[in-house]
Structures are given as structure tokens and as C-alpha cells.
Amino acid sequence: MKLGKLDLGNKLFLAPMADVSDAPFRQIAKENGAGITFTQMVSAKGIVNNEFDALRLFAFSRDEKPIGVQLLGNDPHYLSQAVNEIKRYKPDIIDINCGCPVDKVTKHNLGAQLMDDPVLMGSLIKAMSSVADDIPISVKLRLGKSDSKINILENAQIAEENGASLIILHARSKNTQYKDEPSWEWVKKVKEVVSIPIIGNGSLFTPQDVKKMIDETHCDSVMIARGALGNPFIFSRYSEFKRTGIDPGEPSFKEIEAVVIKHCRLLAKEYSDKVAVIKAKKNIIWYYKYCDGVDTLISKIMSAKTIENEIEIIHDHTEKLNAGIYPPANRELVNQKFIERVLFWVDN
Q1: I need a surface site. Which of 186, 259, 266, 309 has the fewest CB within 10 A?
Q2: In this predicted model, what pLDDT tens digit does every residue of 313-346 receive, in sequence order?
Q3: Mean pLDDT across the stretch 247-262?
């Protein structure tokens, strides 16, 4: 896929995910073949007001390029000012989030709530595109407020008319739960009514899922979100699948071990000891979620106090996996829980 000067070839997008897609997560995804990554969603107002947390979220190093920055905002002034600030750092894409369905976002008329006001949404995109120079502006959208109130065709056309260079479309409505199947047919419909690239998104967990979405919808590429949690291998697997027609399959236990330990050490460099340990726990569980003995791993990893302690647990768990001492896991049950809620080990 080409976008201005940016040529991603057949490589895929890594989604911006709150409290997930930090620098260590992005580095691991990039090393495993992601074409472009995104920083976590960041407040446009926070950037303009030089708030520390906002500035940290969009910070990235030069060797991370190509990279995108995703903004959250509903005020044209703040969004244009934020783009003016961000473009000095030369990201490859600047995105506006018009798709986040979380209540703490939408109750402030942000994220997916903007889909209910196409005129306002258009003014936000125009405010960004008018000052972005040669940096493409993308828009993250959903189908609409609910399955009975789908307005994606109107919103996609408004996005294009106001200067968006591409649309990232999650094929669910704001009110549709993750356990429900996405409506990929709308990705195809949007592709037919606009001339800018369309990036499909929604329940993409395997290379076969990616190929199916592209074949069925003719989208220009896809963005991987939950499918990359503990699974950066999806990017390299898809590249090989696309090149040869053969999926190399899931990684070995040793391959998982090597990547998850590197991920832990990157977290240790990025954060304080306490924060790194907490962030490592959920990532470790995601890496091993479909392996036998995951319940035992969860129990042990939750008691870990240091990164080195976590790495010792990883080594021990991998050796036992290779020895085949755990009873077979109910992978279907874990998958069901994971799809419904990525922190599948936490009680409601």
C-alpha cells in the first residue's frame, strides 16, 4: 500500500491501543514485521497545554518510523494547534479518533460520539488537514451509533471531502460488543463510495483472517488490534503467507520465550520498576494465553515482584511446556473469554 511518500508494501498496521501500544510494544511489533505502528491515543488539548502525560504518550524515537500519532479531540482550534505541534516531529500519519466506544470518552463528546455529528466531525478533519502540510490525516471510524443507526457512508464521504487521506474502519457500531461478529460488508461499501484508501479493522486474529478481509472487501490494508496482544508474530506470519501462500504457523515455545523476555526487558528500560512489573504481567499472560498451563502461569506471574522474577517464571513455564507436563488447555474457552474481554483472567 502506498500513501504519498509512504510505501508499506504488503505490511500491516498496528492499532493504537490505550495502555498497551507503548514504545516497547511498538518495537516488538515492528521487529516482527508490522508496517506502521501508532502511539497511544492522546488528547489534543493536552498536547497544546504541554501536559506531561499527553506529551509522553505521543513521544516516539526516530528509529520507530514509519509511525502514526492518534489524537483525541472535539475542538477544531485544539486539533489544528496539536497538529502544528506534532508535525515538527515528522510522524508519517496523524489520526483523529472518531471510533473509541468507551463511555469515559464518549460522554465528553469524543471518540465514537463524533459520528453522530458529521458536520462537527468534518470541521475537525478540515482543521487538521489544513495545517498538516504533507503529513496524511487519517480518521478512525466505526459504522455508526448502533446497528440500526449506521451512517458510515455519509461519514466516510465527509471525511474525504474535508481532507482525510485515508479511513481506518472498525466494522462494528459504537454499541456492538466485541463478542458479536463485525460486519465486514460495510468495509466493502465504504471502499466503493470514496477514492481514498480504506484500512479494515475488526476481529483479525490470524493471517487467514487478514487475507479473507482483504479478498472480501478489497480494502487497501488492515489494522491489527486485539490480534496483536501477545501475538506480534501475526505480522511476520502474514508477510510469509502473502509471499508464499503458506502460513508458517504459530511460534514455538522457545520463540515465544525469547520475544516475551525481550519485551519485559524493554519495559524495564522504559518505566520504573513497579510500573514495568505491572505492565509485564498482562503482556506475559497474553503471550501464553493459548498454551497449556495458562492458569498456573497466571497464578505465579501475579505474585511476581520484579522483572527478573517474572523472567524466571517464564523460563520455568517454557521448560514445562516443552516437557509436556501440563494438561491440555481449553483453548476454545480461553479464546471466547479473550474476545469478550482482553483481560480474560480478571473477574467481572
Answers
A1: 309
A2: 999 999 999 999 999 999 999 999 999 899 999 9
A3: 97
In whole angstroms, give the CA distance from residue 159 to residue 153.
10
Distance from chain centroid for Cα 113: 20
Alpha carbon 159 to its chain centroid, in Å, reads 21
Cα end-to-end distance, the chain, whole Å? 41
Delineate the domains of the chain, giving CATH numbers in brackets. Answer: 2-244 (3.20.20.70), 253-340 (no CATH)
CB 288 within 8 A of CB 315: no
- Over residues 121-149, the pLDDT tens digits come to 999 999 999 999 999 999 999 999 888 89
For the full predicted model, state whether its pTM sits above 0.85: yes
Decide: 58 and 92 in contact? Cβ < 8 Å: no
Residue 317 DSSP label: H
Residue 168, beta-bridge partner list: 140, 199
Instruction: Compute φ and ψ for 109, nearest 5 degrees.
Output: 60, 45
Alpha carbon distance 105, 111 (integer Å): 6
**Bridge partner residues of 68 (DSSP):** 38, 93
Given the residues 98, 100, 219, 291, the one annotated as active site: 100
pLDDT band at 53 (very low <50, low <70, confident <90, very high): confident
Q: Which cell goes with 44?
A: 489534543
Task: State yes or no: cis peptide before 66, omega within 30 of 0.
Answer: yes
